[in-house]
Amino acid sequence: MDGLILNTEDLYTIGFQKIASIYGKEFTFDLKCRIMGQQTREFAASIINGLDLPLTVDEFVKETRFIYEELFPQSKIMPGVERLIRHLRDNGVPIGLATSSSKETYDLKVKNHSGLFDMLKFKTWGSSDPLVKRGKPYPDIFLVAADKFPDKPAPEKVLVFEDSINGVKAAHSAGMQVVMIPDPRLDRSLAPEATLILNSMVDFRPELFGLPPYTQPK
């Protein structure tokens, strides 16, 4: 979801930098790449350790909650995403959401996009689901998410869309194909496990993966 369906990675960066600035620290892009895809308490610990912040995990999570109540409802849908979701839904392709977010932050993020997210019938919130024992780069979230599909597909029949290095590693570890649409600043050589890397979802061609092709030009 974050950075792939919605522009919430940008909002996370704003929020984390606000906290870091209080202590004279900088939330760098390198640190951001290392935490993307982690569960809430995992990324909180990573940021605290990475920036040497005088906070506990609980204190950091509390600080971010106030920030995100303001920022997340401002989220916007990334280019090409709504077209693909509607296309897959209209063609009867089972689709779901696997996000490391908690159900609480998910609700804030989709506040103005409920219609689109209702099309993603099967949902897994990594920071709230007890079945997701470990965050990305471990494969837990994708295996749990795939198990929610009625036909219980084999991993090789699942296609994952990701924007983070941790997410790509998680999908690959799960035995699934993965299309990566990263931040343009990311060194793509850091994600050799990706099946395909694109600049934008606008560039995705469903037929390359055996899915029904678009009938209208983008």
UniProtKB/TrEMBL annotation:
Molecular-function annotations in GO: metal ion binding; pseudouridine 5'-phosphatase activity
UniProt catalytic activity: psi-UMP + H2O = pseudouridine + phosphate
Entry EC number(s): 3.1.3.96
Gene3D superfamilies: HAD superfamily/HAD-like (3.40.50.1000), Putative phosphatase, domain 2 (1.10.150.240)
Cofactor(s) of this protein: Mg(2+)
UniProt keyword terms in alphabetical order: Hydrolase, Magnesium, Metal-binding
Keyword hit for Signal: no
Family designation: Belongs to the HAD-like hydrolase superfamily. CbbY/CbbZ/Gph/YieH family.
Name assigned to this protein: pseudouridine 5'-phosphatase
